[in-house]
Design brief:
Layout (H helix, E strand, L loop, with lengths): L2 H4 L2 E2 L4 E2 L3 E4 L2 E3 L4 E2 L4 E4 L2 E2 L17 E3 L5 H7 L31 E4 L2 E8 L4 H7 L4 H8 L4 E7 L1 E3 L4 E6 L7 H8 L8 H8 L6 H12 L1
Antiparallel strand pairs: 1-13, 2-5, 3-4, 6-7, 6-12, 8-11, 9-10, 9-13, 10-11
Helix pairs in contact: 6-7
């Protein structure tokens, strides 16, 4: 295992949110607040956390959203110290750490998160709600070009987590597929130059179902 990704990494505030009116008829739970005490983790994520549109958010492959606090400094520079960046949660994440980014972990990595066991399933594909949340255009596109996406976990073993708990790598079965590389291939434009990688991702069983479908579509296009 890579020493950088092994950890343990201290987990910041545990963030949850309820779906509330967001824009017109649209609702969202992107605005999240710190939760008190140990929080239960089940197959669909953190107790008390919601997703408004279950067709694209939530589910077993997107149970917990992790966004690196490491990216906040760059965002502050680019967004002129936007007030949302004063505390974790600006990108709708459930947890945040320092010292671990998309380049440092791989699809299929298993981590002990508090007492739960979680597995990296995909990078976070941004949507229009991020731009609306920040009140700025172009943030969504900037995530795609920079790869500062964050990632999702599925839950392998239920448990609990609270602020200050450790995040510790347990297993790395697919070291070829960093989240950064996979994101660049499937969400960026990397697929155009590496059809063999796209074929391999379409058959990677630990990759989230929706991203395997995306790889299959890119393979056929």
């Amino acid at each position: 295992m890579d020493d950088i990704a092994a950890g343990p990494f201290a987990v910041g505030p545990i963030l949850v949110g309820r779906a509330v009116p967001f824009r017109g008829k649209e609702a969202s739970a992107i605005a999240k607040s710190p939760a008190d005490g140990p929080i239960a983790i089940g197959p669909l994520g953190l107790a008390g956390d919601e997703q408004a549109d279950l067709s694209v958010h939530g589910g077993v492959d997107k149970a917990i959203h992790h966004y690196p606090h490491d990216h906040y400094a760059a965002w502050r520079d680019e967004l002129e110290r936007h007030e949302l960046l004063d505390a974790p949660g600006a990108f709708g994440e459930n947890i945040s750490t320092s010292g671990l980014t998309e380049a440092d972990l791989c699809i299929g990595d298993r981590f002990r998160l508090g007492t739960a066991l979680v597995e990296v399933s995909q990078g976070r594909q941004p949507c229009w709600k991020i731009d609306h949340h920040f009140g700025r255009k172009g943030i969504n596109a900037r995530i795609v070009t920079t790869g500062r996406s964050g990632w999702y976990y599925r839950v392998i073993e239920s448990g609990t987590v609270q602020q200050g708990d450790g995040l510790m790598l347990q297993d790395r079965p697919h070291p070829r597929w960093s989240v950064a590389h996979t994101f660049q291939l499937l969400i960026g434009s990397g697929h155009k130059g590496d059809p063999a990688a796209i074929r391999a991702l379409a058959a990677l069983p630990v990759l989230a179902t929706s991203w395997r479908a995306r790889a299959e579509k890119l393979r056929r296009d």
